[in-house]
Amino acid sequence: MVTYFRDIWDGLVTVLIGMKVTWRHLFTPAVTIQYPDVKVKLPERARNRLYVNMDDCIGCDQCAMACPVDCITIETIKSTPDVDLGLTSVGTKKRLYVPVFDIDIAKCCYCGLCVYPCPTECIKMTDVYEFSEFDRQDLIYRFATMTGAEADAARAKLAAYEREQAAKKAAAASQAAAAPKAPAPQGGPQAPQPPAPASPSTPPEQKG
Amino acid sequence: MTAQNISDMLRARFGDAVTGGKLEGVPDPWIAIAPARAREICAVLRDDPSTACDVLMCLSGVDYGGGKLGVVYHLDSTTQRHRIVLKAEMTAADPHVASVESVWKTANWHEREAYDMYGIVFDGHPDLRRILMPDDWEGFPLRKDYRVPEFYNGMKVPY
Amino acid sequence: MKEMLLDALHNEALVYTLMAFVPLVWVVPFALFAVWWERKISAHMQDRLGPMRTGGWHGWSQTIADILKLIQKEDIIPAAADRKLYILAPYLVFAGSYAAYAAIPFSAAYVGAGINIGLFYIISISSLVVVGLLMAGWASNNKWSLLGAMRSAAQIVSYEMPVALAILAVVMVAGSFDLQEINRLQSGWFWNWYVFQKFPFLFAALLVYFIASLAEVNRTPFDIPEAESELVAGYHTEYGGMRFALLFLSEYANMFAVSAIASTLFFGGWNSPFGEYLAGPVWGMFWFLAKGMTFIFVQMWLRWTLPRLRVDQLMYVGWKVLIPFSFVIVLGVGFWVMALR
Amino acid sequence: MEEMMTQPPAAPQAPTTVPGFGRALKTEEMVISMGPQHPSTHGVLRLELVVDGEVVVDVIPHIGYLHRCFEKHCEHMTNYQQVIPYADRMDYVAAMSNEFGFVVAAEKLLKIKVPERVEYIRVIMAEFSRIVSHLIAIGTYGMDIGAFTPFLYCMRDRERVLDIFEETCGARLLYNYMWIGGLSHDVQANFAGKVKDFCRYFRPQIKELNDLLSYNKIFIKRTANVGVLPADVALNYGVSGPVLRGSGVQWDLRKNDPYSVYDRLDFEIPVGKGLKGTVGDCWDRYMVRVHEMEQSVNIIEQAVEKLPAGDVAAAIPKRIRPEAGDVYVRTETPKGELGYYIVSDGTASPFRIKVKSPCFVNLSALPAMSRGAMIADIVAILGSIDIVLGEVDR
Q1: Strand partners, D344
Q2: Which of A16, B29, C242, D79 could bond B23 through an S-S bridge, CB–CB 3.0 to 4.6 Å?
Q3: Are the C-beta atoms of residues D394 and D67 closer than 8 Å to each other?
Q4: Domains in chain A: how many in total?
Q5: Which of C41, C52, C306 sits opposite A15 (nearest CB)?
Q6: How close D227 gets to chain B, by Cα (Å)?
Q7: What is B3-156's CATH superfamily?
Q8: Chain C: nearest CA to A30, how far in angstroms?
Q9: ipTM metric
């Protein structure tokens, strides 16, 4: 009987305590903001849409390797020794054409792992977060600045150069065969090859 | 109790059911056991007051490659404050191991998961169904020789 | 008002039809307003702002936009549903709650039907709602809806008892079932209101009535028939578009009906709190609606404060707390009335 | 205890027929599917309820709707670092704690000693993560019981923590902040001030929450004596975290198996005492979370005071290539004991990562808690376990 009345009393009192709390909040200002009209300033380190500064990209493929979801696709073409692709802003010499640098931002998980290995700091996360699209294809960002024709030209040039090199090599080899006594001048006639990229330039295959 | 003590005790009681192990130089010392006797060994480890392993922390299926599967038990004692790892190894051709579901209820879902992912059959489990994959999924996805099927119920899998 | 219209129009059928439309003119805008109001109250209690865009000032036309959307929606009847009952149920629910308005005195000059058993009529006609709810739940052919309907039937039937007993206490004091008569008995300054009479019995009757009426209209903490975290939406899970709007409308109509009865029985209805000041038919309407809206506000306030009870606890509160208390109240009032006659 | 452990006690069986009516009327049990789309399953969980009217006779959980092949993904990663973003996505409301567990495990495998500053920052972040997770647990629990307002108060406070997270690592939910051997960023300059501000702000909010929800009579009625999980059954099911502590077992890995710098911090382990009902009921589990938030605030305040100077990236290895071997490391996340079993074959990519997720284990104890309860109680019990389906299904 005592518990019966105490339960009823507790019920009424705790209801009133709760009502006091909500009543107080009725007059506290809202913590929400009117979003499209008012925007929160994002902190400096905010990780949102990826941006690639193609002027600085050396096509090293480090970012694509680091990406856990494989959303970055990079294709490169070696340049021939006679072309100068210029320097990046940190002074690295560019040796590769980058005809394809695609980021599928729909796949991107905003982990930021691609940003750290970049030797030229050309890929970074910006504070842009409003980039929804009606078509998923529009979310594949193509950063490459080369046109298809330019890429084809570069490819043809490389192929021609490689043929030339192969021919030279063959000639050297036949020369060496013709004169077996003379030690083959290894590497002598060979042009300074650009250092091989850290990984094959084909896009990493589908995983998992 | 140290891992060495536990190993000695198990050897004394179960003889050749304890097939090996590595007790030093590894982060977690482990004892290899015969899969068919996992239940008995675990029951002893739980009930013996000197071991009192009342918690099964984790039960993992592993595919070591080359047709070898394994089940790894991580046991813990809340009263004795020691942990011990048991490993039972079996072949993919005969993936049978005794279920420890009757020892720790924890094992119920973990064994179902190991069955789901590796096809390890836990003898004595009351309800050995797939747990994470759909009931009609074919193959055991975490096996090293697993190939993703082209289609599942007419749907293309790698979309 | 009836006499006035009869003099002007000389057509009884037309006059009664017009009279019947008056509450509708109130109920529909009220429901639209109340939904918006509820959103705003809940938002501000939760440190938010609620709807702010539609219509400009604090999203005042949000619910109008909502109802326009609901009207435009495709009318879907689930394949497994019992078509006839499914279609009929929302109308029945609305009819039940709307019919109660017939006897509610909005002002000294207006009451739909000035019958001398008005209260009795309201208690009985509002029970009709439960038939509609059961019908809706059963016809949907959905297990969750069925559970919701069963819960609501049990709940409304049980809570009609304390409601009736609390009303009975007032009737014993007033000696009349006529709501206009009860209003007239409370005229004068606000201390004449029944809530301050026969203290504490009628005050306790108000509490019992208010708590039980919350259950009658499925408001938190007694909203278990449509407990969204348990039953998804209860009996109206399968309803969409205009049918859903009708169920929703009748829910808010019911909310106002019970608030109106509470203000009539305990707070003097259309009486001004200040005796002769600010009185009159139009002021009467204002006071009546203001009192009703205050009750609505308290209902909303409770809703956004409290968790909900479980089914068996709901029955406990109804049968083991409210009914014994209301019997005590009836006895107490009875002795008081007898002794002081 | 010993004897009780040999045979786990059977859960109370509900009568399958209503007493008194059983003989006269034929009654039949009904099977209801609760979920995968249901407001109270906290995600895509399906509970097959066998009900007799409102009374639940049996519960059969069906999981796997959110299975994202975490373990398979890990085996295909090119290095261990790439696992961390995936680990974030398991218990996505307490991502910091998931990372913490993984990096501790990987560091043990690699035998790396991380700088003190890193350890303290990690502890602060993990405790913030605990607060965030418990706020969600408490808020949604209130919503399960029918009170909507506490949920938004909890979300409001949670936002403040997320602001601190965002400022530190750039993301609000999935941080990728703790790296193997260090952190992705050092904390910002005014970090200590912000943290202290939050602690000052947050303590009164807990009191308000208690006023509004915890000690509300209706809330107590709904949760006390509901879904009782006795301590021995809890241990046998291997449940952990607040579910285990709610049953009165004082077991917290931060104290009982300390990792990182928890042994240098002073805090208490709240356990369920059965204040409003039986030990191990829903109210106890709920209240353990409320008290744990208070303790987390204590830990954060101490850790900020003790935060030493140093370089957070000093111990980050250039190449992550652990030697062959395996390690099992468990840490105390807000949900319970999160274990990573990592097998390495000596290459740069993990050979096998098995996650022992606390929610997975805790959810498996649901049928034991809920037989004989009512439908509304199932919601209450499920909410008190506080599952995140991302972690159950991985």
Answers
A1: D325
A2: B29
A3: yes
A4: 1
A5: C306
A6: 18
A7: NADH:ubiquinone oxidoreductase Nqo5 subunit (3.30.460.80)
A8: 4
A9: 0.84
